[in-house]
Write a structure and sequence with these properties.
Blueprint lengths: L20 H7 L9 E10 L2 E8 L5 E7 L4 H10 L3 H5 L9 E7 L2 E7 L4 E2 H5 L6 H20 L12 E4 L2 E4 L36 H17 L9 H10 L10 H10 L11 H7 L25 H7 L33 H70 L1
Antiparallel strand pairs: 1-2, 2-3, 3-5, 4-5, 6-7, 7-8
Helix pairs in contact: 5-6
Length: about 425
């Protein structure tokens, strides 16, 4: 991590410099405003701050710098005090997370330097309309994997929404995961910001959120990806939040039946009724939790057969899958079951046992044919080897004979000419 020099505050100053966005916009393009970086242009902004694309002067690489917008003095003091917690998020390295590179304060403004993940977000993609089932799954699985990596480090996002999902080519990355935590305790003293209440778990109003609140937000994102709209809307933020707390989810026809079972668990009002771990969600989506893993599925499973209750999920849970198993293909629409390897030591059901016997029988029938074919090929090679060698020798001998005949003819002709 590169150390950032922060402009010192004069010792005679009796208070921390107040943030003036007018002054900020007048000076942020000046060289050295953020030491070592050249700010290029604005990428976006929201309740937590404004983001700019920047270029690191030493190597020319693109980064994103987010200046935190915390005008409330009490909240600002807390953010500055807890800014060091961002270093915990910076330790998480995952291909589906926007990396956190550095942090600092300039002219009283706290900022965070992040890896540049492209200008497009899931929000801008959804503004063009709902996604296809395949594209929605491809993006969601990557988001879930990134958030799962945070949860494995006991870190929670708390502000998952399409505006925080960055798209670059076929890669989706989760961003802003080190920012919302800074003001979680003071969330109710801030404006929610347009869009945020649509993805907020109901328990967040009671300040009881945990990792399952992220799972709820992921459910809203999946709902919107498939339908083009969020499950709860209203004339104001509180009406939307009231929908999350009390109203039942109504599914449009554009959301397939099998996804509704998954969404029922993700969008459960009570956190105890949701998925308790994102690996459970990935299993229901028939996707591995990490790259390079696969999921053991029972043969004969059909599309849409996903546990709808916690009891069914517990009874259907499988032993952990080793990391060196065959990876699943990310482009297969979910929840379609793909053929996977059967790691040694796993117990197969009756259908799996029958399938194994059939495969063994086929191998037993084909093996003799393969061996016979291999033996015949080698025998034919040996049989033809000597005739071919003999033909080669005859070819060489014929060349010698031809040369000898030519020499004799030349001698005869020369003798005839000299005798005449």
């Amino acid at each position: 991590m590169v150390a950032v020099q922060v402009e010192p505050i004069p010792e005679d100053s009796q208070q921390e410099p107040t943030l003036s966005w007018e002054s900020f916009y007048q000076n942020y393009r000046k060289p050295g405003y953020v030491p070592g970086y050249e700010i290029v242009h604005k990428l976006g902004g929201g309740v937590f701050g404004v983001v700019f694309k920047a270029r690191k002067e030493s190597i020319g690489k693109a980064y994103a710098i987010k200046f935190l917008k915390v005008d409330d003095p009490g909240v600002k003091e807390q953010v500055l005090r807890e800014l060091d917690q961002v270093s915990l998020f910076a330790q998480v390295d995952h291909p589906n997370l926007v990396s956190i590179e550095d942090k600092g304060v300039v002219h009283g403004i706290p900022y965070i330097i992040m890896g540049y993940a492209g200008d497009e977000t899931l929000k801008s993609r959804l503004e063009e309309g709902p996604l296809s089932e395949e594209e929605a799954l491809r993006i969601l699985v990557q988001i879930v994997r990134g958030v799962h990596a945070l949860h494995e480090h006991s870190l929670i996002h708390f502000d998952l929404k399409p505006a925080n999902i960055f798209l670059k080519g076929d890669i989706a990355r989760v961003g802003d995961y080190g920012l919302s935590k800074l003001i979680t305790e003071s969330r109710l003293s801030l404006s929610f910001g347009r869009g945020t209440p649509y993805y907020m778990a109901p328990e967040m109003l009671r300040r009881r959120g945990d990792h399952r609140s992220d799972i709820y937000s992921l459910g809203v994102i999946l709902f919107e990806c498939l339908s083009g709209e969020v499950p709860f809307q209203g004339d104001n933020e509180w009406e939307v939040l009231k929908g999350h707390e009390e109203r039942k989810v109504v599914y449009p026809d554009s959301i397939p039946i099998e996804y509704r079972k998954v969404l029922d668990r993700m969008l459960a009002k009570d956190p105890d009724d949701r998925y308790q771990d994102l690996s459970e969600l990935l299993q229901d989506l028939r996707k591995p939790g990490r790259l390079g893993e696969s999921i053991l599925l029972e043969y004969g499973a059909q599309r849409g057969q996903v546990p709808s209750t916690k009891a069914e999920a517990a009874s259907a849970r499988k032993p952990p899958v080793p990391k060196n198993a065959v990876p699943a293909t990310a482009s297969v629409p979910a929840p379609v079951v793909a053929a996977v390897a059967e790691p040694a030591g796993f117990e197969l059901g009756p259908i799996g046992l029958l399938g194994g016997l059939i495969r063994a029988l086929v191998i037993a029938l084909l093996l003799p044919a393969k061996v016979l074919g291999l033996g015949m090929a080698r025998g034919l090679q040996a049989l033809l080897r000597w005739p071919l060698a003999l033909l080669g020798m005859l070819g060489k001998l014929s060349v010698f004979v031809l040369v000898a005949v030519v020499i004799v003819l030349v001698v005869v002709i020369l003798a005839t000419l000299l005798g005449a």
